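User: Study the chain.
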Amino acid sequence: MKKIKLLAVCAFLAAAGSALAQNVVAPAPQNVLQLTASGTVEVQQDLLSMTLVTTRDATDAATVQTQLKAALDAALTEAKKNAQTGQLDVRTGNFSLSPRYTKDGKINGWQGSTELVLEGRDFPRITQTAGRITTLSVGNVGFGLSREQRAKTEAEAQNIAIENFKQKANELAKGFGFVGYTLREVSVNANDGGPRPRVMAMQAKSFSADSAVPVEAGKTSVIVNVSGSVQLK
């Protein structure tokens, strides 16, 4: 009987100790510094994206669809002659077909559009191909970074950001009277801080056959931010 009572008391004390431990608030961290640093690398845009478009209008949907298909097929045939992975990739874009209404809400015709996208790193190949396509017009032109160029540039910017973070942490630690620091937590993120892709509208028929559509790429800045906290010591 005494043994049972002793076990009950031990169990009670263990439960009380557990509850007490759960109610104990951990002390707030002391001498913790939050900071952010960044690294920026400016690089020439090496990716060109040209969207060729055309629209058709007719009294019935079948005619519009047939005309759009014919225009797109002809453009695809011409574009694929020069296609090369990474240098000139060819893909179809948006295809739309919708009714046209009168003021009374009745359908009095159909209209539609189709797109072909030329994208890659070989600017002359892309612009010359666009100039040879006569069934579609150049709708817009965009510039950016290829996957390879972006990965390389982000790595460079990341190294700069990390070094800036370490230097800043050391300077602040000494400024507050500490000899150094240890890293607690850190996050790294990258973004393109350069200009938005250029958009331009041009008519393919304004260029002679086989002439390249004029384009000019600019530069963009790849920015990597490093933020986190350090323990001063």
Observations:
- Residues 147-175 form the longest helix (29 residues).
- The longest strand covers residues 107-120.
- Residues 194-208 have pLDDT under 50 and may be disordered.
- The domain at 47-144 is CATH 3.30.70.2970 (Alpha-Beta Plaits).
